[in-house]
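User: Can you write out an input/output pair for a complex, sequences first and structure second?

Assistant: Here is one pair. Inputs:
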Amino acid sequence: MAARAAASNAAALEAAGATQVTFDFRGAAVTIPLDIAAWPLDAIRAGKTGRAIMALLGDQRATLPLKTRDDALELSHRMADACGITPLPESPAKGAFGAVPTLIDIIDSYRDDLEADLRRFYGIDYRDPTMCTLRQVWVYVRRLPVDAALLAARNGGQPPWTRDQIIAARQIELWTRKHYEGRPWSKEEVDAIMAAKKATDEGLDKLKDREAYYASGQNMRDAGVDTTGMTFGPPPNSRTQQQKEDPVGSALAVAMKNASRSQQHRRRASHGNQQQVPGFNRNTGRWDTRGSGWG
Amino acid sequence: MADEAALAPEDFLTFAWRDLEFSFPKDRGQWDMNVQFEMEEGRRNRGTLMLIANSADPEDMQAAKAKVYSVARTAKDWDDFTSDLAEFLNKNATG
């Protein structure tokens, strides 16, 4: 809310022809250039936050309550707010100076897309940058519709997904019971996946502890069995380190194990497993339904 | 010195190295802002001294430097110290 008020104040000051803006930072008045074109943008581009803050503050530095990194970063965000370069609410600022680094990146790296969108949506000819201030550019950019060239360019060349497209894709997912390729995961979905993964990891850790407990023979000692002279090692069915690291080796081991079981089963069958299965006629190879209520 | 009065003892990390101990805030946001500024400018050694001194005061930094120098006299020792400190911070520091 404060950022929104600061932004409208910046617009009013700009319309009135002001060159500086004064704002309150923890009880102290701070005055900085209103137009961020007059800011030390090269320092901000280079990620030199300290140098940029000190250049903007000048002699005011000594009077400000600045000690920690959080203090400095907060001041930098308030500076951006005061000049109307506030980030979108859904993408809060990372680093320093609010949305100024994002705006600089757009102007430096996506100038053609920016020029095309300003022309298409706002009728502004940005070949002449004096047509609007950087604050105005930010105001226009942050309100571009989803089919803007800039949004697609910053999204790897693909237009961002709209809510309608996501709903349509989720309907297809319900029919096909699999994730629609390319659909962005929602925050709730990511949270659910992470929670499930955490639960699985915790379960595996618990199993590992139990495995170690039994493999060490501690369970026998706890039960009062004298284990003197006994040797303990990993359980016979535990996978080797190579199998753990090599998925192909692991898959082959499982296949061989299954094949061996299958052979044992066939051997038993060919040697005549004479066990009588109730209701099954071995001579006809069919189930006898007499007396079962189905006949 | 950073505003330590607002921080509880559990908000601090203690880095132990060759019988020495250095204490500074766990949250990087609570470090003296000049630590980051020095690092941004490429003055890593100066930033490291500010961090372990937990202060940008030259006297505190000099005291921290003397403390490290008491057990680490060579360039390799200092490299080992900064390398171990970086590993410790990556593992334990927040923010």
